[in-house]
Amino acid sequence: MKPEHRRLGLLGLILLALPLVWPSSINSDARIWISIAGNSFQPAELAKICLAIFFAGYLVRTRESLAHHTPLNNTIAPY
After folding, report:
1. Could you read off the pLDDT of 30-78 as tens digits, one per residue?
2. Largest CA distance in the chain
3. How far is CA 3 from the centre of its chain?
4. Three-state secondary-structure class, residue 39
5. String of DSSP letters for 54-77
6. How crowded is residue 9: how many other Cβ atoms within 10 Å of its Cβ?
7. Which distant-in-sequence residues (6+ apart) come within 8 Å of 26 by Cβ?
8. What whole-number distance in Å separates Cα of residue 19 and Cα of residue 51?
9. What is the pLDDT of residue 35?
């Protein structure tokens, strides 16, 4: 079974792309609002929450490999 945070990551990306394809009736230079059934909202605000949960789940899942990773500053040669 897939973890739910992966689905939220996909939902967040879809929400970020939604204003590009959904026709907006709001007269504004910024195309970040969409209108559904007479109500308008910014899907990016919901995408922020979805992507934050996705990245939190990713960090929990990869905690062990991230903890044993060597820092980059040890591998880069000084000038």
Report:
1. 678 888 888 888 899 999 999 999 999 988 888 887 777 666 655 665 5
2. 60
3. 16
4. strand
5. HHHHHHHHTHHHHHTPPPGGGTSP
6. 19
7. 33, 35, 40
8. 17
9. 80
